[in-house]
Amino acid sequence: MQEAMSFTPQVAASPIAQWLWLIPAVPIVAAGFAALLKQPRRKLAAFLAIGSMSFSLLLSLIAFGHVLVGWAHHAAVRETVNFTWIQMGATHVDLGWVLDPLSAIMLVMVTFVGLLIFIYSVGYMAHDENFTRFFCFLSLFAGAMLGVVIANSLLLLFMCWELVGLTSYLLIGFWYQKPSAAAAAKKAFLTTRVGDVFFLLGIVWLFAQTGTLLFYNAGAGSMEHGALAALLSQHAAFGLTAAGAIGLLIFAGAAGKSGQLPLHVWLPDAMEGPTPVSALIHAATMVAAGVYLIARVYPLMQAGMPLGASGMASTPALTVVTWVGASTAVFAALIAVAQNDIKRILAYSTVSQLGYMMAGLGMGGVAVGMFHLITHAFFKALLFMGAGSVIHGCHDEQDIRKMGGLKSDMPLTFFTYTIGMLALCGFPLFFSGFWSKDGILEAAQHWSVAKAPFYMLVFGALLTAFYMTRQVAYVFFGTWRGHKPAHESPAVMTMPLAILAFFAMALGLIGTPLWPWFRSFLDDHAAPFDLHGFGEPGLLVLMGTSTVVVIGGLMLSWWIYGDREFKADQPDMLEMAAPWPWRLLQNKFYVDEFYAATFIAFYGWWARVADWLDRRVWGGAVTGVAFAVRGWAHLNRFLDMNVVDGSFDKGCDELASSGGLLARIQTGRVQTYLRILALAVIALAAILIWSSRA
Amino acid sequence: MTPLAGYLMVAAMLFAIGLAGALTRRNAILVLIGIELMLNAANLNLIAFWRYGPHPEALTGMMFAIFSIAVAAAEAAVGLGLVIHIHRHAHSTDLDAMNRMKG
Q1: Of B22, B31, B103, the CB nearest to A663
Q2: pTM for the model
Q3: Inter-chain residue contact B99 with A674, CB threshold 8 Å
Q4: Which domains does chain B possess?
Q5: Does this complex have an ipTM over 0.90?
Q6: B8, B31, B101: which to substitute to probe chain A, counting the most A Cβ within 10 Å?
Q7: SS3 per-residue string spanning A515-566
Q8: Which end of chain B is more exposed for a tag (fewer CB within 10 A), N or C?
Q9: pLDDT digits over A295-309, tens only?
Q10: Which residues of chain A are at the B interface, by a Cβ-Cβ cutoff of 8 Å?
């Protein structure tokens, strides 16, 4: 590991760092406006999304230029802008953003690939009735992702991280009328949530230990010497230091987002979303967020590594990252061999490549993993958008067995797709994937802990070449096996493909051993143009090995699948050769079934127990109380009806009957009254006369 | 028998005849006539007590009687109006049928 800690302390943030928050804010505001638009305002929605993304790209390029100028003058840029968010007595929670080589390069990648995918979406989603909603979600996603990139606080990163998860859910379930899409969205959300719980635990632990969640804060941040030394002196369980344990918890979050081995199940299902979403979220940016997170907290991950080691020593956290990454790389590549859905093959390939990135981070450092992240973002976005173009051209057909011979029907798509495929396979010299994968393999070769990851990754490279060739052979060669003839996609879709294809090749130039610009830029030292770059012992041998492996995979696959005539319902060549392993692979090692039989079954059982408890125990108690109260109420009712009401009713009856008696006097006959009057007068007169006598 | 006693006897008989008419007749108009008779018996008493009283020169009794006759005229008008309305309403002046105010 190079000494990467020599960043100059920041005096005052430059204007571009001050205004860095605009990069995520503008797409989020655009999303807000797009949310208010009515459905028919398609052009305005697309304009808002693309305009805001172009603005962010422009700002990102300026920021990148700023960092580049600083780097060229040997004054490494790490500018942070922090502010207090919540103040509770003496504790305070700070948020902030950071501009350094890592965030700058990631900003440019996300905005650039994002912009191309936005433009492509205009063509791909042209016939969708929820066009404005789609662009609203896309902008929100882009804003949240850019927030993850610039965050200088683990808390701010986590907020944006969850926003990214939310938009991913919304976009996977964009065609929510399809039950499979709705289920896939739920699965993605819940699976990533498993990782996020651990991530949150790590954040809380880190805050409890260091009192800050800022990464860099002029010496007081959690990723700087003081806090790391404090974390290293704390011992957690299983011989881990607090730094290692927190690193592992954060890695669990990253594994959820980046589809690493135990939590990879959501990513292939996420292909139910529209293809631009698959390209943007599930290939280029969101799944890379986990890798980026590990790169961001790399000082924590490598804390405790013996100083002065040759760079190939390891810490427990990094060892776990490496093993998980390498296993994921092989595991997903194996599954990809036996899939028939064009997007699912790419999805498993993404999982596999993310494993490579993790392994690269674990063994070689930030630059190795991030270089593969950047190159992968370009060629995988290219492949997904090419697949989208194929699906579009084949009338929403996704099964590669029902395609074929498209190289003459869709020449531009074929050409760009082949470039992407060769870059993914790591075809030598002219494709970016070769150089980035080579960096990872080189790091693996020198890893001091174990040699197995190296062989696993080489085997993964062989499988990658194999399944990609199989896919291309099925889709573009042979004869057309569909119903309606395919057609080439419009220019709005093929132009981004061409641009991405250019970068899929050209990006390799910045990371060759001859001129390791990328690594120097991230690790902050000058980038010499060194003809002796190839002279390192074993390097040429390694490059030769990987070339042989890749070409071997290509040839093997071409020998099996290349340019043959076969029918759509015919079983796969490998299936005929080895039916049992094929079934295992086609069913994705039965991981979903395993989860259904264990975790989901356990939760089902637990839910039934809770249901039983709820009904019998708690429900019983509640019913008992209710029964007692009802008994008391019945008693009250009896008393009321027979004692209180009885006496009252009796009084009322008496009153009524006496009233009736008196009412009889009132006959309504005027002469009766008169008669009584007359009798009364006579009686009065008699009394008067009789009393005057006496 | 003093003249006063004679007048009083006449007035008393007149009142008795009026009362008998008012109590026994079923026709509302005849009841009204009975009431008028009783009223005039009272007027006769007023005149008699004035004429044979201590101050026959003061004309107070006559004023009282005239006032009473005027009021009786108004009262008769109201009474006849009521009877006409009852007749219009029920097509009858039979008082025994008029018992809707019964309790």
Answers
A1: B103
A2: 0.74
A3: no
A4: 3-97 (1.10.287.3510)
A5: no
A6: B101
A7: CCHHHHHHHCCCCCCCHHHHHCCCHHHHHHHHHHHHHHHHHHHHHHHCCCCC
A8: N
A9: 988 888 887 766 544
A10: 662-671, 674-675, 678
